[in-house]
Amino acid sequence: MSTSSPTTPLSPPLTAPAAPTPARAARFPAGPAADPAGSREEHRVRSFHARRGRITQAQAAAIDRHWPAWGVELDGAPLDLPGLFGAAGRPEPLPVVLEIGFGMGDATARMAAADPARGILAVDVHTPGQGNLLMLADRLGLTNVRVANGDAIVLLRDMLAPASLAGLRVYFPDPWPKAKHHKRRLIQPSFLDLVLPLLRPGAVVHCATDWEPYAEQMLEVLGAAPQLANQDPAGGFAARPDFRPMTKFERQGLAKGHVVRDLLFTRVPDLP
Ligand SMILES: C[S@@+](CC[C@H](N)C(=O)[O-])C[C@H]1O[C@@H](n2cnc3c(N)ncnc32)[C@H](O)[C@@H]1O
């Protein structure tokens, strides 16, 4: 897979569209909706921070313009992935890779542009990032990106069909460094229990982190699954692949002297 330079930032356009930000609260509330499974699930431990970043006018305008066609609300209803990616005159639906926690979407947009034969379903709870990714998709003319709003756990638990994913990407998930918060880390056995049945044989699981203890946890969790084969023959971390662009979080980690770890695993077929 080729890609453009991983270091060139995809900055937003200098001039925002002139239109005022329309009222859109009813259709697109900031942050994730209530868990459709109800109040018991609602109180489960979450892997994301509740944050309300400032949304720019351009990001809000991108949401207003593109959400009806490219946006997905995580409402718990089964998601028709082939239908979601099969439009735009394609004879065949695209194989779909799920990216959890895309942040501002710069890496997502670059990887989608470099690989138009793959659909990217990108999920995050962060409204400004959703707007930013929609803006980048529009600017780059991407037809292979869809943006989901909500907790990825709802998507994995309730909305995706078995063997429907051709890959999973989790880049720089919140590290939750304090011991009392480790339970909030996304990559843990209960997460993998949800993910594994959704991956088709050959699907690639790609994680990256700059937080060494979390990298070790990822290696332990992914390495313990017999359904996953580590692409590193020595059973360790992978070399940094050139197709994964640099993100703000990675740059910040490197600036602090952290070592960035990539993990690449392949879903093997279930034993008969
Ligand atoms: C540290 S940021 C990394 C963003 C991006 N991958 C990057 O490298 O720049 C982690 C992101 O994951 C998102 N996130 C964490 N848990 C999530 C979940 N369960 N569902 C959806 N998004 C989640 C957060 O909102 C945040 O935007």
TrEMBL record:
Biological pathway: tRNA modification; N(7)-methylguanine-tRNA biosynthesis
An MF annotation (GO) of this entry: tRNA (guanine(46)-N7)-methyltransferase activity
Catalytic activity: guanosine(46) in tRNA + S-adenosyl-L-methionine = N(7)-methylguanosine(46) in tRNA + S-adenosyl-L-homocysteine
SUPFAM superfamilies in alphabetical order: S-adenosyl-L-methionine-dependent methyltransferases (SSF53335)
Broad enzyme group: transferase
Residue ranges, compositional bias (Low complexity): 16-37
Keywords, sorted A to Z: Methyltransferase, S-adenosyl-L-methionine, Transferase, tRNA processing
Keyword Methyltransferase: yes
Xref: Pfam families: Methyltransf_4 (PF02390)
Binding site for S-adenosyl-L-methionine: 99, 124, 151, 174
Function: Catalyzes the formation of N(7)-methylguanine at position 46 (m7G46) in tRNA.
Family: Belongs to the class I-like SAM-binding methyltransferase superfamily. TrmB family.
Protein name, per record: tRNA (guanine-N(7)-)-methyltransferase
Organism: Actinacidiphila polyblastidii
Originating gene: trmB
